[in-house]
Design a protein that fits this description.
The structure is a single chain. With 155 residues, this protein is mostly helical. The protein is 74% helix and 0% strand. Helix 2 runs antiparallel to helix 3 (45-75) and helix 2 runs antiparallel to helix 5 (125-152). The protein is globular and about 45 Å long. The protein starts with a helix and ends with a helix.
């Protein structure tokens, strides 16, 4: 399996199969989040909840399986010494934004499912859902930009 993931990717860039799969799954997650948002706007709350929950699960799995391992393997050993070199700084910034986004997204999902203790439940639900969506989208755009910088331009 490792040989497959480390083989050249399918987009014809310098990326590995792992990176190309991560990109596709991340964009798919962003599409799912957007579909879920539109379902909420259309007051189809039950469908919204299921789509958003699926998107959070998929996104969290991609982060834990692909992104965290890549960051720990390739970037973290150079932090903080190389933060101003190559893609170290932007990758670390992306990782921090993504960590906040996924943490908030998982919390909102758990809250929506009633799995958070009463004392931790927030009142203005829409504000937190919107914040999680915006953070996810910013992180996704940052990840796409990072992919282009690293694997297309080779910085």
């Amino acid at each position: 399996m490792m040989a497959f993931l480390n083989a050249p990717g399918f987009f014809g860039t310098r990326a590995t199969m792992r990176s190309d799969l991560t990109l596709v799954l991340t964009v798919l997650t962003a599409v799912l989040f957007t579909i879920g948002w539109r379902l909420a706007v259309g007051k189809r709350y039950e469908a919204h909840r299921w789509v958003q929950t699926a998107a959070v699960i998929l996104n969290t799995a991609v982060i834990l399986i692909f992104m965290v391992t890549s960051y720990v393997t390739y970037i973290l050993p150079g932090v903080p010494a190389k933060l101003l070199e190559g893609s170290y700084g932007i990758t670390t910034l992306h990782a921090l934004l993504g960590a906040v986004a996924v943490t908030l997204g998982v919390f909102v999902t758990l809250r929506a499912s009633g799995l958070v203790p009463r004392r931790l439940r927030f009142k203005n639900y829409k504000r937190w859902m919107r914040a999680a969506y915006v953070l996810y989208m910013l992180s996704t755009l940052g990840g796409i930009g990072l992919y282009v910088i690293v694997f297309v331009y080779g910085i």
